[in-house]
Amino acid sequence: MVPALEILAREAGQTGGLPIQFQQQGEIRRLDPTVELALYRMAQELLNNLIHHAQASQGKMLITFKKQAVVLEVSDNGIGFSVPDSPTDFAAQGHFGLLGLSERAELVGAQLDILSTQGQGTHITISIQE
Fold first, then answer.
1. Which of 31, 43, 79, 90 holds its CA 20 to 30 A away from the CA of 118?
2. Phi (first) and psi of residue 18, to 5 degrees
């Protein structure tokens, strides 16, 4: 999974014309195939949003393997946005990709945290406890 995420970040950066730094921390291990696919798809959506909506000049993807969890983080230095109070409000604000992200995270039991400030970028964390 880690090589696939690294390639995804590199190709997204090349396609989008902005550098996306990829980092991995901790001892790499395989996850359930359903979880790996969900993480990959969520990473795709996050990088797509970064490239098409963030107006960022750089991005970063970090996957961390902890003792009993895996954490995927994607951040940028873009324009940021107002995060809705509830995932159900994503669609009302036009954030359909984030709604799908929230639903996919829920399906695999992941915790999704979105921090964004207007003019200061976005940092999204997906945590899966094992």
1. 43
2. -140, 145
- Per-residue CA distances from 117 to 5, 54, 93 (Å): 26, 11, 16
Distance CA 14, CA 25 (A): 23
pLDDT in tens, 29-55: 999 999 999 999 999 999 998 998 899
Residue 93's pLDDT is: 59
Q: Which tokens hold the place of 39? A: 């993480």
pTM for the model stands at: 0.89
Per domain, the residue ranges of the chain are: 2-129
The order of strands in the sheet holding 121-129 is 20-25, 59-65, 69-76, 121-129, 111-117
> What would the pLDDT profile of 79-103 be if each residue is shown by its tens digit?
998 887 766 666 555 656 777 888 8
DSSP letters spanning 55-116 = --S-EEEEEEE-SSEEEEEEEE-S---PPPSSGGGTGGGT-HHHHHHHHHHHHTT-EEEEEE
**CATH 3.40.50.970 at 2-129, yes or no:** no
